[in-house]
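Q&A log
Question type: sequence-to-structure
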Amino acid sequence: MRESVFSGSFYPKQKAELSSFIKASLAEAKAEHGKPFSVIVPHAGYVYSGKTAAYAYKRVYDSKKDYDSVIILGPNHTGLGARIGVSAEDWKTPLGVMHSDTEFASEICRACDLAEIDEESHAEEHSIEVQLPFMQYIFGSIPMVAICMGVQDFEASQCMHTAILKASEKLGRKPLLVASSDFNHYESAHVAESKDIPLIKMLEKMDAKGFNEGVMSSGDSACGYGPSTVAALYSKAAGAKKGVLLKYSNSGAQTGDLSSVVAYAAVAFF
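Response status: OK
Response body:
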């Protein structure tokens, strides 16, 4: 069992407070109509980015009957563990236990030689854990696969999206894919937006390669660009026609300091 590490810091520790925040955030969010094949959501503390994430999760909530599993991909902030670590453990939050789809996890690892079952990469990583309460609130109980990407280049992203497609087809799964990423870090709100928006426009055009390589060439510090690339590749292959920016924000809205912000985006592929 992977116990909660970040409850009480990144999100509320008490079940009632946590549920109340998610409920209110979903009620406030406006969103495009249509079932998303995948979403990109931020992973900062809920006070900073939770309401932005809710714009994507609102669409998931309205389409929840169309999914039988969830794949959550996040970046590896700690440097621990495998190149791409796939968890086979169940995960606990204040809202209960999310059960690992171990069969799905194993098939994904078989289909991508960069991936392996590995818990060390997840032990102190927040990017996946902070998504789980939203999943639990929306679905109640749904099998999940947690994937921590230590390598995020285009080739690694291609390997992961192909593996997810193959595993989904082999097992007959209908997953929602969640890519966990913040966007530009620790520059002014103006600079962050000037770097982020051209990249997000590539995602809207489903130009996964242009986005992935553009993050590096532009100096943007989006931390989950690999998971976001996987989301775009997977969605296009699964039949999506467009990406839509649902909400863009930054930490300055909470702190009042626009001189150094972390930027957040909620994107859905329809």
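Response note: Residues 154-171 form the longest helix (18 residues).
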